[in-house]
Amino acid sequence: MSNDDEYCPVCKSSRYLNPQIRFLIEPTCYHKMCASCVDRLFGNGPSDCPVAGCGKRLRAARFRAQTFDDIAVEREVDVRKRVNKIFNRREDEFATKRQWDDYLEMVEGTTFDLVNGTKKEVEAAEKRLREYEEANKTVIERNVQRERAEALAFMAREEAEREMLRATRKAAELETEEDKRELMLSRHAQLEALSNGDPEKAERIKQNYIKRAEERRRKARLDVETAKGIREGRALVLNSMLAKAGEEEDEEEEEEWEPLGKNVSDTSKYFSLLEEYPRVDWIDGFVADQKVAAGGYDRQDWYQRSLFEAFAGLTVFLPEDEDEEAASKSLPDRTDIMVVDVPS
Amino acid sequence: MEDETYLGSTQYRYFTFTPSKLSQIRQRTNQLATQHLNESIQSAIQAGDLSDSGQDLLEREPLTAEEELKLVSYYITQSVAICDHFRTGSAVKATTLIFLQRIYLRISPLQIHPKTLLLPILYLAFKSENGVTSASWFIRTAAEAGLTITREELLTPEIDLAMNLRWAFQVLHPYRGIEGVKLELLAMQAGTYRGPAGETAPPFEGTRDRIERACGRARILLTGPALCTDVYFLYTPSQIAMAGIWVQDGGLIEYFLGVKIKDEAVRQRLLKVIRECGERHLLATKDAPNPYPGLLLRLPQNGVPISVEIPPELKKEAVRIDKKLFHLKKPLKEAKGKHPPATDTSEEERRAKKRKLEKENRDKDDVFGGGGMIKRKQ
């Protein structure tokens, strides 16, 4: 830190007079002042910046220590933080590399305008930022959540890893201890056997010990492998949780489905069903039958169906020449192609 | 709404054609079948299965498309008689006849004789119209008329029939449409008619009797002789219904359409189509000039009378064609008896190869990866 930075521009007290002096800035105008000035000026609520010609409204709570020596860098970092909070899309949201690059360029352009632009450019950039935020609220929120989920998952993974290492270390310690104990026991037993004048028994005990030690080692190796497997499995589960984190709100607006095709109404332009039609002998006789009526036969349905069939395809005219026909009829379906002749 | 629904139907998509297209399909079917027969004979000659010298077998007069048409038409009238024996009712009868027409549109009597398919088609029509039908009842009823058929013979062709119908089992008939027109006309006559916008109809001159008579006769026409014509391939069911009534009482339909269709140009065009359907098909006679010269359509001018009774001249013709067909296929039958595996397997192999090739070609541009072919029972 150079010497001329060492005094507060507001109260002119310097590090020489007050070695405990702390310098703070407020990210609205980035004018530096000492902690006691901040207390004095802004302790009773928001007030104007004391630097001549600035007059920005500052708040005590927003004052913080400067991280970077250069105030321009400090400001740029703040701007980038803010911009990245809003422009938080990810590469996998874009179909092509080109689109992603264009997006990055747009973000960088906005940031540059905010940091280095003239007043007009800054205003335009602010406006762009606001509009984007309005338009993409859900996407932004989703990405924030994703980020949070990722951080959580990362922490959980780290924790699991540490746990695993601890467990293996502990297992190894236990194993060494066990090994030592066994070795001692076996030696005692061997000595006892020898003192009893039975070298064969001593040899047997020795072999037995070697075998068991081998077995223990194999088991330990197996344990480590199982732990690894569990760890990997856990990582997989976490990843899948992560993938789900963003999806919940990922719904597109669906087009309204019309069963008869686009813009085809489901009411007829030829007829409207009357309440009552003049008597038709057979249908009236039919409906009068108790067995039929009990089954729920509805005369209106029959009217509807008859009238529908009277008009279905009425104004479908076949084209008169062949070219027109080829154009008007759609391609055959798959079932249409499958005709196998009957063996004679 | 009505037109869009109709445009989605299989009847429109697979079985509606212009007259020239219809005739073209029939010609093509005949050509393919003839070619197929000749190839089979040729391979039989090469295999040495034929006693005659081969060449004159190949130079015999082939079965023409016109003869095929007559033969199938004869079996349509036969089918009517069978339906009458079964007391099927008009819907099943009409469906049977239309199935028969549709099946012999793309296969030829040279491949399989219509005689063998009449009962399976009727059974299929029963099932399409009425739902489950007992096969043993069917076989019993057929036996009463002197037609013997085993269960296997009845059921085996079904899958091939279904395939040739392109799995389109629904036939849209004009009968309910006639009832609809009748309802509206009766309401107009009684003065209770209200259109979709609440408008009333101009006063109807005539009695209730006039309407009922015309509609009743139209129904008789359409459930009978009309089924022996090509109208189902050429017109939509509602147009056929209108034409059926128009034939009985032209003024009635003109009045009706005057109320229903406000657009003058559309109405005139529709009336033209209805008149054409009525005059050229439903009312066609042998003496009238042929409205479709050179085309293969079921018209009296082409020797296909429209009648549900079996016309004697058609019968005579059918017997002659049947004989010819028998002689054409005779050498193949002999060859098969002598040395069946040779021709059969090579033929099967060739077909299997062709099918596989076709399938591969199709699968290439299938977004779903293809492979969805139904295995046939052999």
Automatic annotation (TrEMBL), chain A:
<dbReference type="InterPro" id="IPR015877">
    <property type="entry name" value="MAT1_centre"/>
</dbReference>
<dbReference type="GO" id="GO:0070985">
    <property type="term" value="C:transcription factor TFIIK complex"/>
</dbReference>
<dbReference type="GO" id="GO:0061575">
    <property type="term" value="F:cyclin-dependent protein serine/threonine kinase activator activity"/>
</dbReference>
<dbReference type="InterPro" id="IPR001841">
    <property type="entry name" value="Znf_RING"/>
</dbReference>
<keyword id="KW-0479">Metal-binding</keyword>
<dbReference type="GO" id="GO:0016301">
    <property type="term" value="F:kinase activity"/>
</dbReference>
<dbReference type="InterPro" id="IPR013083">
    <property type="entry name" value="Znf_RING/FYVE/PHD"/>
</dbReference>
<protein>
    <recommendedName>
        <fullName>RNA polymerase II transcription factor B subunit 3</fullName>
    </recommendedName>
</protein>
<keyword id="KW-0862">Zinc</keyword>
<feature type="domain" description="RING-type">
    <location>
        <begin position="8"/>
        <end position="51"/>
    </location>
</feature>
<keyword id="KW-0418">Kinase</keyword>
<keyword id="KW-0808">Transferase</keyword>
<dbReference type="InterPro" id="IPR017907">
    <property type="entry name" value="Znf_RING_CS"/>
</dbReference>
<keyword id="KW-0175">Coiled coil</keyword>
<dbReference type="Pfam" id="PF06391">
    <property type="entry name" value="MAT1"/>
</dbReference>
<dbReference type="Pfam" id="PF17121">
    <property type="entry name" value="zf-C3HC4_5"/>
</dbReference>
<keyword id="KW-0863">Zinc-finger</keyword>
<dbReference type="GO" id="GO:0008270">
    <property type="term" value="F:zinc ion binding"/>
</dbReference>
<feature type="coiled-coil region">
    <location>
        <begin position="115"/>
        <end position="182"/>
    </location>
</feature>
<dbReference type="GO" id="GO:0006289">
    <property type="term" value="P:nucleotide-excision repair"/>
</dbReference>
<dbReference type="GO" id="GO:0006357">
    <property type="term" value="P:regulation of transcription by RNA polymerase II"/>
</dbReference>
<keyword id="KW-0539">Nucleus</keyword>
Automatic annotation (TrEMBL), chain B:
<feature type="region of interest" description="Disordered">
    <location>
        <begin position="330"/>
        <end position="378"/>
    </location>
</feature>
<protein>
    <recommendedName>
        <fullName>Cyclin C-terminal domain-containing protein</fullName>
    </recommendedName>
</protein>
<feature type="domain" description="Cyclin C-terminal">
    <location>
        <begin position="173"/>
        <end position="278"/>
    </location>
</feature>
<dbReference type="InterPro" id="IPR036915">
    <property type="entry name" value="Cyclin-like_sf"/>
</dbReference>
<feature type="compositionally biased region" description="Gly residues">
    <location>
        <begin position="368"/>
        <end position="378"/>
    </location>
</feature>
<feature type="compositionally biased region" description="Basic and acidic residues">
    <location>
        <begin position="357"/>
        <end position="367"/>
    </location>
</feature>
<dbReference type="InterPro" id="IPR031658">
    <property type="entry name" value="Cyclin_C_2"/>
</dbReference>
<dbReference type="Pfam" id="PF16899">
    <property type="entry name" value="Cyclin_C_2"/>
</dbReference>
<keyword id="KW-0195">Cyclin</keyword>
